[in-house]
Amino acid sequence: MLILMKEDEKFSRPLPSPNIHPEQFGALFTVGPVTPNQRWRFTCYGYDLSIPQAWSVPSNHLELLVSGNLQKPTLWAAPSSVIASGSDVTIWCEGTKESRIYFLYKEGSSAPWDSQTPKGPGNKAMFFIASMEKQHAGQYRCYSYKSTGGTERSDPLELVMTGIHNSSVTLSAIPSPVVTAGENVTLQCVSQHQYDRFILMKEDEKFSLALPSQNIHPELFGAVFTVGPVTPNQRWRFTCYGYYSSNSQLWSVPSPDLELLVSDQITCPCKGDFLCDILLTDAPFPPTSLQGPFTNPPSGLILAL
User: How far is CA 198 from the centre of its chain?
Assistant: First the structure.
């Protein structure tokens, strides 16, 4: 026999356990109608009719989440939702001041990943991961409850782990990282490793569109992104990663950062400076220009802030 228990009620009616699959026995229970003003949390047990007071170990808890009249909570990760392997990350879920308990669910699991009550002032709960591992990568949502019911689920949070693949990726601007304000720029992310997707990240924005990998040279795979139009009033700093579509939340080590220099932001300390003139005009280096020692080394570039 099998019996279902709701946490705030007495025993349910037990049901016999037919053979529902080869080598698997079970029973189907119908509950409800469900309402948002109470908690619907269940456990089930099995037992033998010959000893009806001797039950099995309990099943895992199953909680039904009923949409209520609370505003849906906000979910985010700090310092970022893209986390290096072994680093710590904090997931925050913020609801209304009436919220009494928060539940965090990971995609693919029917049971809560964790639950927390609000700590200190404010109306948010903290879920801390001390060391980012493979099993932590995935999509999360949170819910909050008060005495009269639960919320709609939050928008999803995609938590990504980087560094799982050690094959490096490289990011470059074509033809040059020095660009003219108002223009679009082509960025190329490449690797000798055959990742099937590449993704470009701008430091102050969410994920860019991921692109499929192409065999751009013998033994070299990559993707070409177009960004812009670039403007001088913001910073254009990028990183890219490679990953496999079958594990889209597990990324490679990051490429070195690439920062675009918008020509309107660049000034030369000395008119006629050789290197500065070349950078500003995007002219190719003459093949013999840098031969021999410099008697007067060219001064560096100054970025106007």
Answer: 15
Residues of the chain with CATH 2.60.40.10: 1-64, 68-162, 166-262
Fold of 166-262: Immunoglobulin-like (2.60.40)
Q: H-helix or E-strand containing 274? A: helix 274-281
Q: With beta carbons less than 8 A apart as the criterion, state whether 284 and 178 touch.
A: no
Measuring CA to CA, how many Å separate 57 from each of 1, 47, 54, 219, 293? 14, 10, 10, 55, 81
Question: What's the CATH code, domain 68-162?
Answer: 2.60.40.10
**CATH pick for 1-64 out of 2.60.40.10, 3.40.190.10, 1.25.40.340, 3.30.110.170:** 2.60.40.10
**Segment 95-116 mean pLDDT:** 85
Band of the pLDDT at 191, cuts 50, 70, 90? very high
For the four alpha carbons of 40, 43, 44 and 47, in that order, the dihedral sign comes to: negative
- Closest Cα to residue 143, out of 207, 185, 99? 99
Q: pLDDT exceeding 90 applies to what percent of the chain?
A: 34
